[in-house]
Structures are given as C-alpha cells and as structure tokens.
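Q: Hi! First time doing this. I have a protein sequence and I read that you can turn it into a structure. Is that right? Here it is:
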Amino acid sequence: MNDGFHFLDIVFFAMVAAFLVLRLRSVLSRRTGAEPPPEKWQAAEPDADNVVELNAVRRSAAEPAPESALGQGLAAIRATDRGFDLDGFLGGAKAAFEMIVIAYAHGDKATLQPLLAPDVYRHFSDAIEARRQHGETLQTELVGIRSAEMIDARMDGRFAVLTMRFVSEQVNSLRDAKGEVIEGNPERVVDVIDEWTFRRDTRSNDPNWALAATHTPES
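A: Yes, that's right. Below is the predicted 3D structure, encoded as structure tokens:
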C-alpha cells in the first residue's frame, strides 16, 4: 500500500517539476527592455520555433503605418530578413550613437572600427589623425538623446538600410595645443541634429549593423 502512495508521490512531483521548468522558460525568454546592450550591436534573434509568430504579431510602438513609404520599406526588410526586430534595432541604434559620439571625441579607433562601414571609418580615422597632428583635443559631453526617429527604411540590393534622425544635447569644444578653445563652448549645452544611415548585408552571417553614412541637416 505504501509503495503505491510512494509511486503517486513521485508522479505528482515530476508533474510539478515539469510545470516549473516550462514557467521558467517562458519567463526567461521574455525581454523586458532593461537588459544591458551586447558588446557588439545586434538585434536579439528570436527563438527559431517562434519566428513566424513574432514577425506576424509583435510590432513596435514606433511602428509606422503599413501603407506609408516607411512602412513599406520595413515590410521589404522583413520579407528579406525574417529575424529583423524593430525594437531591437531602435535600442541598438541609440546605444551605437552614444558609443560612436564618445569614441570619436576620445579618438578611440578600436571602438569605432566594428561599428562603422569601411569608408566611414576611414573618414573618422583621418579626422582623428588630423587632430592629433595639430595637437588638438575634442571634448564632448553627451548630455542626453532627446529623440531618435526612424526616417527611412529600404532594401538596397541585398543590403537593409535604415536612417535615423537623432536630436541630442551635447557640450562640445575643440582646444588647440595650448589648451585654448578654438571652436565650440565648453560651458554651453547645444542641440545637435544628426541623420545617420545604418546598413546590414542580409546575406551575411554577421548580424551586426554598421554606420554607413552621416548627415547634418542645415538649420
């Protein structure tokens, strides 16, 4: 008789354990938006078993109207890249913006290189070397990003292309070899508008996006 009860106990606890495992999996697979950014910028890849459901149901709060040019451009990207996640991209774009702005001011080429397309990296590197040759120092404080808006989305051949408009508050000053300010104001916060274009080869195994172009609109 006791053996029968022991057997039922084992079955019961096995069912409880299985239930807890499933609950843990469901909780741990959710993204809260508070996770730290990865060392390299890439949108998180959804579970392979849930790709269709995520692409069909999950939509960002920043999702444009499907009939708009922006919405159609995103649809074209999603049709080619089934793993594309808009929320992941937007979060990664803001993190990349902060990293690139600060790394450029510090002359940190090692941080810049994996985040930039080759031709953009070459321009940034040349500007950093020119500062060093003249003994100039660029000081930048990124006070905050006021807005980050996607303004263009399209496919260019096999490349997914997304353009963001960033409005940030910055303190910028350029000093000469004597430490004198020759450009900017180290005590003034200014609004800076940048339009940055990111690109990714959808045929590549590398999931990371790279900054492919920069533009500063005329005020």
